[in-house]
């Protein structure tokens, strides 16, 4: 079937427009796909390079960190042999106690700065002792290394006489013992000795006695306050012996041990010191801090003496190692062991890696020289780089636009799906409503009133069907025998009734004709139906053929209302032809003329 010309024009116009648009869309899609593939390849390559570099750097990071820490120590003039021994000691410390080997090496920087002239063994021994003591006394390595430097400054002669390595190990063990005995910390002990300085050592007091006194005082005060009180006592002990008429020095002028001084004061004032005696002591020593020191230490002179002896018996750092091991976390040991392994392997290839990285870094100076020597070329190279970046940005913009379009189409499809879902839900709701209405109708029919209404409706429908199909029903019933019998009886009865009716009509007409001016023909009324039919036949026979056709044309038109309603009738009418007949003249017996216009439908 051919399409109308306007429709063909519209289709052609749409086709001419959509073809170029489709080509452009395909080109843009192809460009976008190519750009994305290129970007992904480039990104994969860059990611591979970055991942390789990151993996290499991550593998060498322990060695790099260790190299940085060693570089700091090396800057102080430490020999390579000392650095090698320090590195091995740091690995040993990390594997044993689970602490950072790089922090171990960094702590040696402070020790080397505070203590000059340390040999290879001394540097490693001081660093090991400091970090073990820090772990044992819950202090950080920086605090303890500062403490070691302070103690070495105070007891330098003793350390040199004993040997620096042996002395620092004794100091470590003694400090750990004091921390355990007096419930203090390494940081508080460091503060106490920082406050007192070299006052006690100048008076000839040993390290064990100073540590015992400061530890005892820290039972009721901080380390710095304990150092201040003890320092005030030492400052006034010389003139106090004259004021109190007591002797606090030996024959060489050296100060007596603290226990002996306390016993002399106890012998003079007894077990306790009242207010007046306190004022006298304050006047003798010159400060209340000194009196406070005496009162605290006199509470347990025997205990103080025992602590001094115990600390004096310490020769190594065994106690510190024991305490440090008790606080070691095994998971930290495992982590540090992995770090040490990577550092050890990395240190073997680190020189080559440093040379390679250094070469690349040196290229920077060459590039700088090139830019200074060829500024114009550098400018155009910069423009080219900017242009490449602009192209990359343009491709990215196209990808963004196409991605946005895809997202928009996806959103539209989603909205369409939602609309379909809503429509389906609405349809389902209507189906449910129809079911509900059916249920309501059933309930209504179950009601007597509903049954009455339904009966009336059925009766009306039956009457309408009887009227519509009456001709067909009559034709069918005429074939039934019992119907014919009933019809015969009805005709006989009706003939009698009609004869009586005709006689009655003749009598009525005669009476009416008696009225002046009334003249009614009684021939029609008196004749039978057969006579009338014969007369009409003779009159029709005398008519011409043209008049006969005119009379036939006015025969009643049979109803063509078909099943299916007016729609079906209109549809059928479209397939039929119509013939229009003009004016028809009908001449009955009386001579009047009637005019009828009609249209007869012929199939």
How do the helices and strands follow one another from N- to C-terminus? HHHHHHHHHHHHHHHHHHHHHHHHHEE
Q: Which sheet architecture does the biggest sheet show? A: 2 strands, antiparallel
Strand neighbour order, sheet with most strands:
1-2
Q: Report the β-strand fraction as a percent range.
A: under 5%
Record the SSE blueprint.
Blueprint: H1 5-74, H2 80-97, H3 101-114, H4 120-136, H5 141-154, H6 156-162, H7 164-182, H8 186-196, H9 199-202, H10 207-217, H11 223-243, H12 258-269, H13 275-285, H14 288-298, H15 301-312, H16 318-326, H17 330-373, H18 375-446, H19 448-468, H20 470-477, H21 481-513, H22 523-526, H23 529-542, H24 545-553, H25 565-573, E1 577-586, E2 594-602
Antiparallel strand pairs: 1-2
Task: Give your account of this protein's structure.
It is a single chain. With 603 residues, the protein is mostly helical. Among the domains are: 76-328, no CATH class; 560-603, no CATH class. The chain has 25 helices and 2 strands. It has helices at residues 5-74, 80-97, 101-114, 120-136, 141-154, 156-162, 164-182, 186-196, 199-202, 207-217, 223-243, 258-269, 275-285, 288-298, 301-312, 318-326, 330-373, 375-446, 448-468, 470-477, 481-513, 523-526, 529-542, 545-553, 565-573; strands at residues 577-586, 594-602. A two-stranded antiparallel sheet has the order 1-2. The chain starts with a helix and ends with a strand. Mean pLDDT is 76; it is low at 524-530, 548-570 and 576-603.
């Amino acid at each position: 079937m051919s399409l109308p010309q306007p429709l063909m024009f519209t289709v052609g116009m749409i086709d001419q427009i959509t073809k170029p648009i489709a080509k452009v869309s395909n080109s843009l899609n192809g460009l976008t796909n190519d750009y994305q593939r290129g970007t992904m390849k480039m990104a994969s390559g860059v990611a591979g390079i970055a991942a390789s570099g990151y993996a290499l750097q991550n593998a060498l990071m322990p060695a790099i960190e260790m190299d940085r820490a060693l570089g700091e120590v090396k800057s102080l003039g430490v020999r390579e042999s000392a650095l090698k021994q320090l590195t091995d000691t740091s690995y040993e410390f990390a594997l044993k106690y689970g602490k950072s080997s790089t922090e171990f090496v960094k702590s040696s920087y402070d020790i080397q700065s505070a203590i000059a002239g340390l040999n290879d063994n001394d540097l490693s021994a001081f660093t090991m002792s400091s970090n073990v003591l820090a772990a044992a006394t819950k202090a950080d390595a920086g605090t303890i290394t500062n403490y070691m430097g302070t103690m070495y400054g105070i007891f330098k002669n003793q350390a040199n006489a004993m040997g620096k390595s042996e002395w620092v190990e004794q100091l470590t063990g003694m400090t750990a013992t004091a921390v355990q005995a007096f419930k203090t910390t390494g940081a508080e002990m460091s503060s106490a000795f920082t406050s007192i300085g070299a006052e006690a050592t100048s008076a000839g007091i040993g390290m064990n006695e100073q540590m015992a006194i400061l530890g005892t005082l820290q039972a009721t005060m901080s380390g710095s306050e304990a150092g201040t009180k003890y320092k005030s006592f030492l400052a006034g002990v010389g003139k106090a012996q004259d004021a109190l008429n007591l002797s606090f020095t030996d024959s060489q002028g050296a100060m007596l041990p603290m226990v002996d001084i306390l016993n002399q004061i106890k012998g003079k004032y007894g077990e306790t010191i009242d207010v007046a005696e306190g004022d006298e002591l304050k006047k003798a020593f010159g400060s209340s801090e000194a009196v406070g020191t005496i009162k605290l230490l006199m509470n347990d002179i025997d205990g103080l003496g025992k602590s001094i002896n115990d600390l004096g018996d310490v020769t190594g750092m065994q106690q510190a190692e024991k305490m440090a091991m008790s606080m070691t976390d095994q998971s930290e040991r495992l982590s540090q062991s992995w770090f040490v392994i990577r550092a050890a392997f990395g240190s073997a290839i680190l020189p080559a890696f440093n040379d390679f990285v250094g070469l690349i870094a040196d290229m920077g100076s060459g590039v700088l020289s090139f830019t200074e020597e060829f500024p114009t070329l550098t400018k155009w190279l910069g423009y080219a780089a900017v242009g490449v970046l602009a192209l990359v940005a343009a491709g990215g913009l196209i990808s963004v636009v196409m991605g946005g379009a895809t997202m928009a189409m996806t959103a539209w499809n989603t909205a369409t799906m939602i609309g379909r879902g809503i429509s389906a839900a609405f349809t389902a709701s209507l189906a449910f409503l129809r079911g509900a209405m059916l249920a309501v109708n059933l309930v209504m029919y179950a009601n007597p009133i509903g049954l009455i209404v339904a009966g009336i409706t059925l009766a009306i429908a039956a009457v309408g069907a009887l009227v519509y199909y009456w001709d067909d029903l009559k034709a069918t019933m005429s074939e039934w025998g019992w119907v014919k019998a009933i019809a015969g009886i009805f005709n006989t009865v009706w003939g009698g009734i009609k004869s009586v009716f005709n006689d009655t009509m003749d009598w009525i007409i005669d009476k009416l004709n008696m009225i002046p001016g009334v003249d009614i023909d009684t021939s029609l009324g008196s004749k039978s139906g057969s006579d009338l039919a014969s007369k009409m036949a003779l009159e029709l026979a005398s008519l011409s053929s043209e008049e006969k056709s005119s009379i036939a044309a006015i025969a009643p038109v049979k109803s063509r209302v078909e099943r299916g309603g007016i729609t079906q009738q209109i549809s059928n009418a479209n397939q039929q032809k119509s013939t229009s007949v003009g004016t028809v003249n009908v001449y009955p017996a009386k001579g009047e003329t009637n005019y009828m216009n009609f249209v007869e439908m012929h199939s």
